[in-house]
From TrEMBL:
Lyase keyword on record: no
Name this polypeptide is given: Major Facilitator Superfamily protein
Keywords linked to the UniProt accession: Cell membrane, Membrane, Transmembrane, Transmembrane helix
Organism of provenance: Amycolatopsis xylanica
Membrane topology qualifier: Multi-pass membrane protein
Pfam families noted in UniProt: MFS_1 (PF07690)
GO-annotated cellular components: plasma membrane
């Protein structure tokens, strides 16, 4: 039986510690920047629609930028690309802090930051297997997910505390500083790695790489499964507010509903990392992915508050399937396509989750939530059955 991997396997590597610290800073910075910008927009317009556009514009560029600019991860030295992305984001965030900035300009700058994000994430994902060879890779990826989940809560709380003490513009300047520190960590504490590809048409190279990745059947199935599960599983989260209103839940109860799913995700990462070796992480992908959706069928019974918390928490536990998917993607991706596949995985995940939020809201205008969530859960179970990794790996 293969040995279990541990978080200390990743944290023992100095270069990873620098990349991880930079990730924590940039993740918190991104969330606080979005929060502060939404406050600026609302203060200027009083429009809830324009305020929500701040978050929508942060998601929508991911597939476009991750596709069109994906070749950059092979054509530029990775450290230079990462540092450039962080400094560009810092510059855009600082520009947003200029007093009197028109709303259209603020939204355009948010879109610009959204374009930079997938390039940065794709480049970091592509180089992570080189920083974390062998068994250290899975716990490293897990730590990034734990930070992403925790930062959603901590970043919003930090944003609220900051804006209680300083203006939104000052908060944006502080977060621009966080991106500069992140860039410095990457510049001085990581190795430079030469580009893997020669210069040429960036668009042609990017689209060619996309076609090559999706032309590999096993790899295509792994990517699709990794995108379909979270984009369907987020429906209860996207519809938490209207469901809480329908059921008469208090604001405090709504907050607990929003927190319990990421809590289940975090606990699942720990349990999967400490309780399963690599072989079993891969072999249990399908069963854990099914666990994401089976509890959500309970929405058909119009669950009360405690039952809803239990449903969401159990669904969150199924996200331990990510551990096995990470390993499987490395196994099925040809060496020359690995960096493109990792970049596409990250960009696609963000895009499809953003689209999932939009679709959930649109469908809820016509379909009761107690019917919509079970229906999407059933679709999710069908997708898991059709894209089950055992079949994908065998191709």
């Amino acid at each position: 039986m293969t040995a279990r991997t541990r978080y200390r396997d990743a944290l023992a590597i100095g270069e990873f510690r620098a990349v991880f610290a930079a990730h924590v800073l940039s993740m918190l910075g991104m969330i606080v920047a979005q929060f502060a910008t939404s406050v600026l927009v609302y203060q200027s317009t009083g429009s809830p629609l324009l305020t929500t556009l701040v978050f929508a514009l942060a998601f929508t560029p991911h597939l476009f930028a991750g596709t069109v600019f994906s070749a950059l991860v092979d054509r530029m030295p990775v450290r230079r690309l990462l540092v450039t992305c962080n400094l560009t984001t810092a510059t855009l965030a600082a520009t947003m802090a200029i007093p009197g900035m028109p709303v259209w300009a603020l939204l355009a700058l948010v879109f610009g930051i959204g374009l930079v994000g997938p390039i940065f994430s794709g480049a970091r994902a592509a180089t992570l297997p080189e920083i974390l060879p062998g068994p250290a890779y899975i716990p490293g990826r897990s730590l990034f997910r734990l930070v992403s989940q925790g930062a959603q809560v901590a970043g919003l709380a930090l944003g609220g505390l900051l804006l209680a003490a300083v203006t939104a513009s000052t908060a944006l300047l502080m977060e621009a500083g966080a991106f500069v520190v992140s860039a410095a960590l990457l510049r001085f504490a990581t190795k430079e790695r030469p580009p893997r590809a020669k210069a040429g048409s960036l668009l042609r190279d990017s689209l060619g790489g996309l076609r090559a990745v999706l032309a590999v059947p096993a790899l295509r199935r792994v990517l699709l499964l990794g995108w379909v599960i979270p984009s369907l599983a987020l429906f209860p989260e996207a519809l938490a507010n209207p469901y809480a209103h329908e059921q008469g839940f208090s604001t405090v109860q709504l907050g607990l509903m929003m927190a319990v799913l990421p809590l289940g995700n975090i606990l699942a990462e720990f349990i999967g990392m400490w309780g399963l070796d690599v072989e079993h992480q891969v072999s249990r992908i399908a069963s854990l992915a099914a666990l994401v959706f089976v509890p959500l069928l309970g929405y058909a019974l119009r669950p009360g508050f405690i039952a809803t918390l239990a449903i969401l928490f159990c669904s969150g536990l199924g996200f331990a399937h990510h551990l096995g998917l990470d390993r499987l993607l490395l196994d099925v991706a040809p060496e020359h396509l690995r960096s493109r596949a990792l970049a596409l995985q990250t960009a696609g995940l963000m895009f499809w989750q953003g689209l999932g939020f939009a679709v959930a809201g649109a469908l809820a205008q016509f379909i009761p939530i107690t019917a919509l969530v079970p229906a999407t859960a059933a679709i999710g179970l069908a997708a898991v059955a059709g894209l089950r990794p055992g079949y994908a790996a065998a191709r």
